[in-house]
Amino acid sequence: MSTIPRDPETTESPGVVSESADNTGRLDGAPRGRIFAVLAVIVLFTEVAPMQYTIVAAALQKIAPTFPGVGANINWAIIVFGLVGAAASPLIGKMSDVWGKKRMFLVCGVLFMLGCALDAITSSWALFLIGRGLQATAIATAVIAYGLIRDLMPRKYVPIGLGITATGLGLSAIAGPLLGGFLVDNYSWRAIFWCLAGFTLLMLPLVYFVVPESKLRVPERIDVLGAVLLSAGAGLTLIYLDKGQDWGWSRPTTLGWLAAGLVLLMLFVVIENRVSRPIMDMRLLFHPRVALVLAGALFASFLIGVQSYALGYMTQTPDQATVTAGVQQATLAQIQQQTGQPLPPEAVQVTLDPGYTYGNGYTLLEFAVRIALLQAVLAMLCGALAGALARRIGARLPLITALALFVGAGVCYAVLPHTWVTFLWVSAAFGIGFGFYYAAMPILMVEAVPQEQQGISLGMLGVMQSMGVAIGLAIVTAFLNASPMRALVTVAGQPAPPSPIPDIFGDRGYELGFWVAAGAAALALLIALIMRHGRTPATGGTAY
Questions:
Q1: DSSP annotation of 346
Q2: Is 0.85 topped by the overall pTM?
Q3: Those residues with Cβ within 8 angstroms of residue 457's Cβ, 6 or more apart along the chain or in another chain
Q4: pLDDT tens, 101-118?
Q5: 314: which of 96, 146, 378, 536 is 20 to 30 A away, CA to CA?
């Protein structure tokens, strides 16, 4: 087995860090109010990424008419954000190690604010996507935040700080859905981006004046070639996963994206093994302490992608009786227009094939209040709890708890009745697991890598989680497209040709997606069970 490279400045035995190695500007001896003020500003600043996702996703239907001809490609407003953010996170994480974490924190904030301002004023689809790409740098703020907390917080607060950062202080979880619904219902969609820009403008001076800069620097140049290969390879692979269903998984032009992405990622590994100053040490990347965490993140994220998509979609779909009545009324109106003679409603009989049992017809705001809010609050509370537990018993047991809840939630979603009450309580259990999961993963990574590799390592964690979400979404989309809904209409006893009903799918498509996601979570659980890493109390990074 290969050996993880030791911090060159550390000469003591494992678990002990020399004074020079820990000279990062840590707030040891600072008043508790000062410590928690720094933590609060860091956490609030990182909440802009999940908050924008919630708000912008709520506004897509209102944004689409501004860009005629875009059609279903309006989803690229979300896809571009995830693609650029996942591809850029490793590079920005490495840049924060070399040039300074607070500095890159502020740079990401300025780029996000500029992207919001651009989207608030443009009516060009191309410029709108460029703005979304600039906003995607906000995803990397979480990577930088983990590094700042490791460098600045007193060691005993690092696990708790990482747990709180992973799930936030409630701004995106609680205020995000409510604010998004309010802005969408009462103002132009452009108000969303002005609101996000204003929030960032408010936070930038707080970051500048409240958060000190980490003194830790990695004295090396950025491996530009390695960064380009990693970012481009991850980006092309994610494009294939996100758009493969629309373009055709097996079409040569679609496979070209995947092939190019995999080739670039393989070149990244080959070249990084040869250069003297790699962007990431390959021995570290493939060591079990890191590789198992990344593999677990990939498989666990399947359910995160499926659940976040399916619950909102299923509850906002009208129920079967409403859809059937709508088809009947449309058929009666069409016959009257063609013949000039009205028919009694009983002359038109409609059944749906294959039929479905979900559907509440909720607005996005109703879904947020009735289902998503409880999940979000529990995730927020459990993130902090998992950080505290990791400090006492290690991060592995909180991760095992999270993944066991993921498996149970996936199975329950697949087999229990598809009612909003079921979704409420299962998503609440999922929220507990969500908080434990997102707290445990960065803690495990911080405990596994040296300080000079924390930015790029946490960036890789973000890439694997993004890929897992994309794969989960691709799988459930494929199952849904294989379970389309058709209306079987009989007019005065004469059957008409079946007609498709867009955007509604049979139960089986969702159920298969949940089963696959539960199986992937079970595989992640198996990885966590055999993982030797994280079995001792988290030290805030000193164990390395």
A1: G
A2: no
A3: 93, 280, 284, 290, 445, 448, 449
A4: 999 999 999 999 999 999
A5: 378
